[in-house]
Amino acid sequence: MTITELKSIALGLPPEEQAELACDLLLSLDSLSEQEIEQLWLEEPSRRDAEIDAGTAKLIPGDQVQSRSRSTVVTQLDNEAAPPRVQPPLARLK
Questions:
Q1: How far apart are CA 23 and CA 1, in angstroms?
Q2: DSSP-H helix ranges across the chain
Q3: Using 50, 70 and 90 to split pLDDT, how confident is the model at 87?
Q4: In a domain, 30, yes or no
Q5: 20 to 30 A Cα–Cα from 32, which one of 17, 22, 39, 44?
Q6: In a domain, 84, yes or no
Q7: Does this model's pTM top 0.70?
Q8: Tens digits of per-residue pLDDT, 5-60?
């Protein structure tokens, strides 16, 4: 199974299960050393470049990214007092 296939499956999960999976994945990173994390960050640009060259990356024009980012920030500020729609299972971290 490729990472693209795995992402597709994960994104098809209900929001609560996506949040749980995301939490578990983030927690799993805690077991990496600083050197391992740094190496992953160094490898990331090459991986993304290879995806672009292979035509498997979904490219989004910069103006669309900026527009979406602004919209997201405005929405978050507008809903600042509102509770989040999905509560990630972070209680087990405490």
A1: 22
A2: 3-11, 15-29, 34-54, 62-78
A3: low
A4: yes
A5: 17
A6: no
A7: no
A8: 999 999 999 999 999 999 888 888 777 788 988 898 999 999 999 999 999 999 99
Q: Quickly tell me which residue has 């994945």 as its tokens.
A: 25
Domain membership of residue 68 (yes or no) is yes
Domain that holds residue 36: 3-78
CA distance 39 to 7: 22
Residue closest to 49 by CA, chosen among 35, 59, 40, 39: 59
Taking residues 65-90, what's their average pLDDT?
A: 74
Within a domain: 91: no
Please tell me the distance from the alpha carbon of residue 24 to that of residue 29, in angstroms, as a whole number.
Answer: 9
Structure token digits, residue 2: 């490729």
54 is written with which tokens? Answer: 């292979």
The token duo for 83 is: 């509770």
